[in-house]
Design brief:
single chain, 89 residues, mainly alpha, Helix Hairpins, 4 helices, 75% helix
Length: 89
């Protein structure tokens, strides 16, 4: 279920703030959004996979906390990020 290395590197290079950035909130939210999308598709097929559903809920909560932090600290970056990712906030 983890992201492939090339997908992860592509997302990191797209959302990073500078050349050596791999852990900024923007990058973390983008990676979580991709994983959430993949896990959602998995759960559409496997409706009774409750362990994965719990993991999905935990990822959604983590993404929510990161987006709230970003909204508090850098409003412009937050608005750009949710527009790029298509999040409904």
């Amino acid at each position: 279920m983890a992201l492939a290395a090339e997908e992860k590197n592509k997302l990191i290079s797209q959302y990073r703030r500078h050349d050596s950035d791999a852990g900024s909130p923007q990058v973390q939210v983008a990676l979580l959004t991709e994983r959430i999308g993949q896990l959602t598709e998995h759960l559409r097929i496997h409706k009774h996979d409750y362990a994965s559903r719990r993991g999905l809920l935990m990822m959604v909560g983590r993404r929510n906390r990161l987006t709230r932090y970003l909204a508090r600290t850098d409003r412009k970056a937050y608005q750009e990020l949710i527009k790029q990712l298509g999040l409904r906030k």
